[in-house]
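Example for tutorial group B:
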Protein backbone atom coordinates (compact mmCIF):
# COMPACT_ATOMS: atom_id res chain seq x y z
CA UNK A 1 0.00 0.00 0.00
CA UNK A 2 2.83 2.44 0.85
CA UNK A 3 4.27 2.02 -2.67
CA UNK A 4 0.83 2.87 -4.10
CA UNK A 5 0.66 6.02 -1.98
CA UNK A 6 4.16 7.06 -3.05
CA UNK A 7 3.37 6.48 -6.70
CA UNK A 8 0.24 8.62 -6.42
CA UNK A 9 2.23 11.41 -4.76
CA UNK A 10 4.85 11.25 -7.50
CA UNK A 11 2.09 11.36 -10.14
CA UNK A 12 0.91 14.65 -8.61
CA UNK A 13 4.41 16.12 -8.63
CA UNK A 14 4.92 19.68 -9.79
CA UNK A 15 8.69 20.28 -10.30
CA UNK A 16 8.32 24.07 -10.45
CA UNK A 17 6.35 24.13 -7.21
CA UNK A 18 8.87 21.74 -5.65
CA UNK A 19 11.74 24.13 -6.40
CA UNK A 20 9.87 27.03 -4.82
CA UNK A 21 9.09 24.93 -1.74
CA UNK A 22 12.71 23.88 -1.35
CA UNK A 23 13.70 27.55 -1.24
CA UNK A 24 10.86 28.45 1.14
CA UNK A 25 11.68 25.64 3.56
CA UNK A 26 15.40 26.47 3.61
CA UNK A 27 16.85 23.23 2.24
CA UNK A 28 20.23 24.67 1.23
CA UNK A 29 23.56 23.76 2.80
CA UNK A 30 23.73 24.93 6.40
CA UNK A 31 20.04 25.85 6.52
CA UNK A 32 17.56 24.27 8.94
CA UNK A 33 15.98 22.07 6.24
CA UNK A 34 19.25 21.08 4.60
CA UNK A 35 18.87 18.21 2.14
CA UNK A 36 15.09 17.90 2.37
CA UNK A 37 13.40 16.88 -0.89
CA UNK A 38 10.05 18.16 -2.18
CA UNK A 39 7.70 16.82 -4.84
CA UNK A 40 5.55 19.94 -5.10
CA UNK A 41 2.02 19.06 -3.92
CA UNK A 42 -0.67 21.52 -2.80
CA UNK A 43 -2.48 21.38 0.55
CA UNK A 44 -5.87 20.50 -1.06
CA UNK A 45 -4.21 17.56 -2.83
CA UNK A 46 -2.70 16.42 0.48
CA UNK A 47 -6.05 16.65 2.25
CA UNK A 48 -7.67 14.55 -0.48
CA UNK A 49 -4.96 11.94 0.03
CA UNK A 50 -5.73 11.83 3.76
CA UNK A 51 -9.37 10.99 3.01
CA UNK A 52 -8.34 8.31 0.55
CA UNK A 53 -5.75 6.59 2.76
CA UNK A 54 -7.12 7.26 6.25
CA UNK A 55 -7.13 3.54 7.16
CA UNK A 56 -3.39 2.99 6.74
CA UNK A 57 -1.91 1.06 9.65
CA UNK A 58 0.63 2.57 12.05
CA UNK A 59 3.29 0.38 10.42
CA UNK A 60 2.41 1.73 6.97
CA UNK A 61 2.37 5.29 8.31
CA UNK A 62 5.83 4.68 9.78
CA UNK A 63 7.12 3.53 6.38
CA UNK A 64 5.67 6.66 4.78
CA UNK A 65 7.13 8.89 7.50
CA UNK A 66 10.61 7.49 6.86
CA UNK A 67 10.61 8.37 3.17
CA UNK A 68 12.96 11.11 1.92
CA UNK A 69 10.25 13.27 0.35
CA UNK A 70 8.81 15.97 2.57
CA UNK A 71 5.27 15.39 1.32
CA UNK A 72 5.45 11.73 2.32
CA UNK A 73 6.25 12.77 5.88
CA UNK A 74 3.56 15.44 5.79
CA UNK A 75 0.94 12.94 4.62
CA UNK A 76 2.02 10.43 7.26
CA UNK A 77 1.58 13.03 10.01
CA UNK A 78 -1.78 14.20 8.67
CA UNK A 79 -2.96 10.59 8.69
CA UNK A 80 -1.69 10.20 12.25
CA UNK A 81 -3.59 13.31 13.37
CA UNK A 82 -6.75 12.04 11.68
CA UNK A 83 -6.48 8.66 13.38
CA UNK A 84 -5.75 10.25 16.76
CA UNK A 85 -8.81 12.49 16.49
CA UNK A 86 -11.01 9.55 15.48
CA UNK A 87 -9.67 7.14 18.11
CA UNK A 88 -12.38 6.10 20.57
CA UNK A 89 -10.22 4.13 23.01
CA UNK A 90 -7.54 5.59 25.27
CA UNK A 91 -5.25 2.69 24.32
CA UNK A 92 -5.46 3.74 20.66
CA UNK A 93 -4.62 7.34 21.55
CA UNK A 94 -1.70 6.22 23.69
CA UNK A 95 -0.32 4.02 20.91
CA UNK A 96 -0.37 6.94 18.47
CA UNK A 97 1.15 9.30 21.04
CA UNK A 98 3.98 6.92 21.95
CA UNK A 99 4.67 6.36 18.26
CA UNK A 100 4.70 10.11 17.62
CA UNK A 101 7.23 10.99 20.32
CA UNK A 102 9.58 8.27 19.04
CA UNK A 103 9.55 9.75 15.53
CA UNK A 104 10.95 13.24 16.10
CA UNK A 105 13.91 12.63 13.77
CA UNK A 106 11.36 12.61 10.93
CA UNK A 107 9.23 15.53 12.19
CA UNK A 108 12.01 17.74 10.95
CA UNK A 109 10.64 20.99 9.65
CA UNK A 110 8.44 23.66 11.19
CA UNK A 111 5.38 22.83 9.09
CA UNK A 112 5.58 19.14 10.05
CA UNK A 113 5.75 20.14 13.71
CA UNK A 114 2.92 22.64 13.47
CA UNK A 115 0.44 20.42 11.62
CA UNK A 116 0.75 17.58 14.08
CA UNK A 117 1.98 18.35 17.58
CA UNK A 118 -0.96 20.35 18.93
CA UNK A 119 -3.48 17.64 18.18
CA UNK A 120 -1.33 14.67 19.15
CA UNK A 121 1.06 15.76 21.90
CA UNK A 122 -1.11 18.56 23.24
CA UNK A 123 -4.27 16.51 22.91
CA UNK A 124 -2.86 13.49 24.67
CA UNK A 125 -1.14 15.34 27.52
CA UNK A 126 -3.96 17.79 28.25
CA UNK A 127 -5.18 15.90 31.34
CA UNK A 128 -1.88 14.14 32.12
CA UNK A 129 1.62 14.86 33.38
CA UNK A 130 3.41 17.36 31.13
CA UNK A 131 6.89 15.91 31.84
CA UNK A 132 7.42 14.89 28.20
CA UNK A 133 6.76 18.46 27.07
CA UNK A 134 9.31 19.90 29.48
CA UNK A 135 11.85 17.25 28.52
CA UNK A 136 11.37 18.24 24.88
CA UNK A 137 11.73 21.93 25.76
CA UNK A 138 15.07 21.23 27.46
CA UNK A 139 16.31 18.76 24.83
CA UNK A 140 18.57 21.19 22.87
CA UNK A 141 17.09 19.66 19.70
CA UNK A 142 15.37 22.28 17.54
CA UNK A 143 12.36 20.26 16.44
CA UNK A 144 11.64 18.83 19.89
CA UNK A 145 11.86 22.35 21.30
CA UNK A 146 9.40 23.65 18.74
CA UNK A 147 7.10 20.67 19.38
CA UNK A 148 7.16 21.52 23.09
CA UNK A 149 5.95 25.10 22.71
CA UNK A 150 3.58 24.64 19.76
CA UNK A 151 1.89 21.65 21.42
CA UNK A 152 0.58 24.04 24.07
CA UNK A 153 -1.80 25.58 21.51
CA UNK A 154 -4.16 22.77 22.52
CA UNK A 155 -4.04 23.96 26.15
CA UNK A 156 -4.39 27.63 25.19
CA UNK A 157 -7.57 26.92 23.23
CA UNK A 158 -8.97 25.40 26.43
CA UNK A 159 -8.03 28.38 28.60
CA UNK A 160 -4.96 26.78 30.20
CA UNK A 161 -1.92 29.03 29.88
CA UNK A 162 0.55 28.09 32.61
CA UNK A 163 2.49 25.50 30.60
CA UNK A 164 2.80 27.87 27.63
CA UNK A 165 4.29 30.54 29.86
CA UNK A 166 6.61 28.12 31.66
CA UNK A 167 7.94 26.62 28.42
CA UNK A 168 8.27 30.10 26.92
CA UNK A 169 10.51 30.98 29.85
CA UNK A 170 12.67 27.90 29.23
CA UNK A 171 13.08 28.90 25.56
CA UNK A 172 13.35 32.64 26.15
CA UNK A 173 17.03 32.96 25.19
CA UNK A 174 17.03 30.37 22.42
CA UNK A 175 19.31 31.18 19.49
CA UNK A 176 17.08 30.09 16.59
CA UNK A 177 14.44 32.33 15.00
CA UNK A 178 12.11 29.35 14.47
CA UNK A 179 11.83 29.15 18.25
CA UNK A 180 11.55 32.93 18.60
CA UNK A 181 8.62 32.90 16.17
CA UNK A 182 6.93 29.90 17.80
CA UNK A 183 7.19 31.31 21.34
CA UNK A 184 5.98 34.73 20.19
CA UNK A 185 3.08 33.10 18.35
CA UNK A 186 2.00 31.12 21.43
CA UNK A 187 2.26 34.21 23.65
CA UNK A 188 0.08 36.09 21.16
CA UNK A 189 -2.47 33.25 21.34
CA UNK A 190 -2.49 33.53 25.13
CA UNK A 191 -3.08 37.27 24.80
CA UNK A 192 -6.11 36.75 22.57
CA UNK A 193 -7.78 35.00 25.49
CA UNK A 194 -6.15 36.65 28.52
CA UNK A 195 -4.37 39.86 27.61
CA UNK A 196 -3.51 40.65 31.21
CA UNK A 197 -1.66 37.35 31.61
CA UNK A 198 0.35 37.89 28.42
CA UNK A 199 1.18 41.50 29.39
CA UNK A 200 2.32 40.40 32.83
CA UNK A 201 4.71 37.89 31.25
CA UNK A 202 5.99 40.41 28.70
CA UNK A 203 6.56 43.14 31.28
CA UNK A 204 8.82 40.71 33.12
CA UNK A 205 10.78 39.61 30.03
CA UNK A 206 10.38 42.01 27.09
CA UNK A 207 13.68 43.82 27.57
CA UNK A 208 15.72 40.63 27.28
CA UNK A 209 13.69 38.41 24.91
CA UNK A 210 14.73 38.19 21.24
CA UNK A 211 13.28 40.96 19.11
CA UNK A 212 11.47 38.61 16.73
CA UNK A 213 9.81 36.83 19.66
CA UNK A 214 8.61 40.16 21.05
CA UNK A 215 7.33 41.36 17.68
CA UNK A 216 5.29 38.18 17.20
CA UNK A 217 3.93 38.37 20.76
CA UNK A 218 2.70 41.98 20.48
CA UNK A 219 1.48 41.85 16.88
CA UNK A 220 -2.18 42.42 17.86
CA UNK A 221 -1.53 45.13 20.46
CA UNK A 222 -2.70 48.70 19.98
CA UNK A 223 -0.05 50.62 18.03
CA UNK A 224 0.91 52.91 20.92
CA UNK A 225 1.27 49.94 23.25
CA UNK A 226 3.26 48.02 20.65
CA UNK A 227 5.67 50.91 20.17
CA UNK A 228 6.13 51.26 23.92
CA UNK A 229 7.19 47.62 24.14
CA UNK A 230 9.49 47.93 21.14
CA UNK A 231 11.13 51.12 22.44
CA UNK A 232 11.38 49.83 26.01
CA UNK A 233 9.53 52.78 27.47
CA UNK A 234 7.04 50.95 29.68
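The residue assignment follows.
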Amino acid sequence: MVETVQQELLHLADPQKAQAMQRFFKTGKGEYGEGDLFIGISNPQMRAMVKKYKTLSIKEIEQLLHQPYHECRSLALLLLVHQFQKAKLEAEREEIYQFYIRQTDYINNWDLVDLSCGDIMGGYLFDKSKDDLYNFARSKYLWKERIAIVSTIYFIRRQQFDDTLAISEILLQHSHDLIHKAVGWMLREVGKRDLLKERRFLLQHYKTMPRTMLRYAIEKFEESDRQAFLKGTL
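The chain is about 70% helix and 0% strand. Compare this with the pattern of hydrophobic and polar residues in the output above.
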